[in-house]
Amino acid sequence: MRSEEHFKPMVEPSGFRKHIPVLKSIEKDEHFYSIISLRQYSYASVITFSIDWDMTTDLSPNTHIHSHFDLYLGEKYDCRLTNGGSTSGHSSYNYVVSPPLSDDISGIQLMFREYSDPFMNRSTGIEIVFHMD
Hints:
The protein is an all-beta fold. It has one domain (4-131): Immunoglobulin-like, CATH 2.60.40.1640. The protein is built from no helices and eight strands. The strands form two sheets. Strands 1-2-3-6-5 form a five-stranded antiparallel sheet, with no helix packed on it. Strand 7 and strand 8 (123-131) form a beta hairpin. The radius of gyration is 15 Å and the shape is globular.
């Protein structure tokens, strides 16, 4: 029952239109969170959320704990993590948003909520919020 979100039809980005510059960053708890741009498609937008940290503190393979982030833009939007990856000192995640965001993103708030598990059951309480000017 809790997995019904995974069975909703997913909008696939197609018909690339343009990049929209965002250039926003937030530093919190020794992590640097950023969004450089978003990609506009005919029926969806794609947001890439990046996280950087000092990799010299990764002294053992278990030092950095992998987190899971959920993107929330309001009830009007469906936001889904489609892919991502991580290496020492950097993680990057792509989210598909439908319907597509307006080309004028001023006034929009991108809220990334951190969870300690991939099923979004245990919130860490950390929220990274980007306010678009």
